[in-house]
Amino acid sequence: MEFKDILEKFDIDGEYLSCVPYGSGHINRTYKAAFNRGGKEVHYILQKINSTLFTNVEGLMNNIELVTEFNRAKISENGGDPNRESLTIVRTKDGKTYYKTSENEYYRVYIFIENAKGYDVVEKPCHFYESAIAFGRFANLLDNFDSSQLFTVLPDFHNTVKRFENFKKSIEADKANRAATVKKEIDFALKQENIVSHIVDLLSSGEIPTRVTHNDTKLNNVLIDVNTDKAICVIDLDTMMPGSICYDFGDSIRFGCNPCAEDTPKTDEVVFSMPLFEEYTRGYLSVFSDSAKKAEKDNLAMGAILMTYECGIRFLSDYLDGDVYFRTNRANQNLDRARTQFKLVSDMQSRYNEMCRIVEKY
Predict the structure, then answer these.
(1) The overall pTM is greater than 0.70
(2) What is the mean pLDDT of residues 70-86?
């Protein structure tokens, strides 16, 4: 189907003008659609949902509907603008949150948030700080949300124990015959086995509470106002599930404290930025410290190491499997991604005590 035909299924006023690729996400296909409404050009986000990964689109969209409606109500209560500070689902003309084509493809539409941008790397320290504010606010909004309402979209998504077991299976299977060429990376990853169960065990024992978490807290999942440099909205809610804020905090650190691109082939230039770590920690705890439990705060630094390590073994596993999960557009891209993560893990481990002192400071 043409984009115009798909968009006509949604409750959108105006004359269709265009629909072009937008953003830099790895998983879904994202487009920016333009419509003429009374002489004014208005915009929407159209996404083709990756139903190979998200096999239960009904459950996925129900999660997003529940959380966005909950958050929008809270934002309104606080005097904010829910159309700007939250994703807004545009329903189909028959009231659904997504459209399924005759070819079993799934699409959804959101209102486009104008004058806002997501950044793939930290161009200004204030952006990273603002992303911390945004994710801290997101956690606060959902502090009283009943996580049992949510469908588990990706079981064991941040279960580092199972990720490690899957990684070992990828090594053994060696489907793309690449294991012999990445022995150094494999050896580094296997040597981290003693830390993989840390957060999983704390969640299982109840020492760390299970919360609704975003689970993909990269800088580019926060929209920043292009005029004020202030965070506006948290986006990409596909992986929202019950989990630990140590995961959310840690994934932000993994992504944002590396001044290089996530897939840079120049691994020697990758370095863990302590100033950016402190900037994010200061922002996150300025809005979420009162809600966070002591055990959560005590494990934020470990969460950063574990999320970086987990992402590294996911990239390396996909490389060993033949690049079947993460989208690539050049040879060795997943390998470069893995090497970047492992360099960050090594740097963090050497500065772990300093990271803990910064968390304690704020």
Answers:
(1) yes
(2) 95
> If phi over 0 gives left and psi between -120 and 50 gives alpha, with beta otherwise, what is residue 80?
beta
Q: What distance in Å separates the CA atoms of residue 317 and residue 311, rounded to the nearest whole number? A: 10
Question: What is the Cα–Cα distance from 63 to 75, expressed in whole angstroms?
Answer: 18
Backbone CA torsion sign across 262, 264, 268, 269: negative
Helix (H) or strand (E) holding 40: strand 40-49
Q: Tens digit of pLDDT for each residue in 167-197?
A: 999 999 999 999 999 999 999 999 999 999 9
- Per DSSP, the three-state class of 43 is strand
DSSP letter, residue 147: G
Give me the helices (H) in the chain, please.
3-7, 57-77, 82-85, 125-141, 160-173, 183-190, 198-205, 245-256, 274-288, 294-298, 300-321, 333-350, 352-361
CA 93 – CA 37 distance, rounded (Å) = 18
Q: Quick one: residue 163, left, alpha or beta (phi over 0 = left, psi -120 to 50 = alpha)?
A: alpha
Kindly indicate the confidence band of residue 86, based on its pLDDT and cuts at 50, 70 and 90: very high
Residue 289 CA from chain centroid, whole number: 21
**pLDDT of res. 256:** 85
| pLDDT at residue 41, rounded to an integer | 97
262, two tokens:
């996530």
Percent with pLDDT over 90 in the chain: 88
**Distance from chain centroid for Cα 103:** 28
Q: What span, in angstroms and rounded, lies between the C-alpha atoms of 160 and 133?
A: 26
DSSP letter assigned to residue 176? T
Look at the block and give the residue holding tokens 């096999």: 55
Is residue 61 a contact partner of residue 108, using CB atoms and an 8 Å limit?
A: yes
| 157 within 8 A of 287, measured Cβ to Cβ | no
- C-alpha span between 58 and 114 (Å, rounded): 28
CA separation for the pair 273, 29 (Å, rounded): 31
Minimal CA–CA distance to 166: which of 321, 296, 303? 321
Q: Is 70 within 8 Å of 142 (Cβ atoms)?
A: yes
Closest CA to 32 of 24, 20, 40, 41: 20
The rounded distance, in Å, linking the Cα atoms of 132 and 138 is: 10
